[in-house]
Specification:
With 261 residues, the chain is an alpha/beta fold. It has two domains: 7-87; 90-259, 3-Layer(aba) Sandwich (Rossmann fold). It has ten helices and nine strands. The protein has a six-stranded parallel sheet with strand order 3-2-1-4-7-9, with helices on both faces. It has a three-stranded antiparallel sheet with strand order 5-6-8, with helices on one face. It is globular.
Length: 261
């Protein structure tokens, strides 16, 4: 199977707007359709590990998939179970709901399926819920989150990252997702998340994180990567250094609580 010529796989690899949970669902769905050719899947695993090295849930998924293949125990149930687990947020909601009963205005950043599902369920309990979403440059995936919230009737405001201070001050709480929860308790998430955490500390607002257990890592390693400079400024002068980073560490000292399953 040619990786470059496989359009479905190319779409997944080039997806820079979906959260890690949504990416896992897409990857699992893709690989489940290839399960009759186990050798093809096995050849893909090293490349997928490198490509998705920032996502703890996908790393765990690929590790388990590789083990099952090597032991010749891979079955359709693996893909079905993964899909079911990835779509289940009920325990996170049960743990989080008591903390949001008095919060009307929530601010978030980027595009997290876990946060989206949690906000949709909170809205069933609080009809007057309002959500402010940071647009999340450079890929603007916050627009996807804002559109998804608006579709289910939640009142939404879309803001730029430069407006964070004003709107954190107006919010009741900040709720974000996580790409990795490190062993230390620090969290890795989309750039801008640390700024939100610092602002919450300044304005004495709770800073919440929602993350299922697949995001928890036994490691403390985080390697910062530079992404395509053209996403920031396509025709920048050659003597200007463009920095484009997607992820950053949020120290646990800034985190009020992590809701998990």
């Amino acid at each position: 199977m040619g990786i470059i010529s496989d359009a479905a796989l190319k779409r997944i690899l080039s997806d820079k707007t979906s959260g890690s949970g949504e990416l896992l669902l897409k990857l699992n769905d893709y690989l489940s359709k290839k399960q009759e050719n186990v050798q093809d899947i096995q050849r893909l695993i090293p490349m997928l590990k490198r490509h998705f090295q920032s996502f703890e849930n996908i790393q765990k998924y690929l590790l388990e998939l590789d083990k099952l293949i090597r032991r010749k125990k891979l079955s359709p149930e693996f893909f079905t179970n993964c899909s079911s687990k990835a779509r289940s947020n009920n325990k996170i909601f049960v743990h989080a709901l008591p903390y949001f009963k008095r919060h009307k205005i929530i601010l978030t950043i980027s595009n997290s399926r876990t946060v989206l599902e949690l906000l949709k369920r909170i809205r069933k309990e609080k009809r007057n819920l309002e959500v402010m979403v940071c647009e999340s440059r450079p890929k603007l995936e916050g627009r996807i989150m804002a559109s998804s919230l608006a579709k289910v009737g939640i009142k939404v405001q879309l803001i730029t990252e430069s407006m964070m201070a004003e709107f954190v001050h107006k919010s009741d709480a900040v709720l974000i997702g996580a790409d990795v929860v490190l062993k230390s308790g620090d969290v890795i998430n989309k750039v801008g998340s640390k700024t939100l955490a610092i602002l919450c500390k300044e304005f004495k607002k709770p800073f919440f994180i929602a993350a299922d257990r697949s995001k928890f890592s036994g490691k403390n390693k985080f390697v910062q990567r530079e992404e395509d400079r053209k996403e920031i400024w396509r025709h920048a002068p050659k003597n200007i250094t463009i920095r484009n980073r997607y992820f950053e560490i949020i120290p646990k000292s800034y985190i009020t609580k992590i809701f998990t399953d």
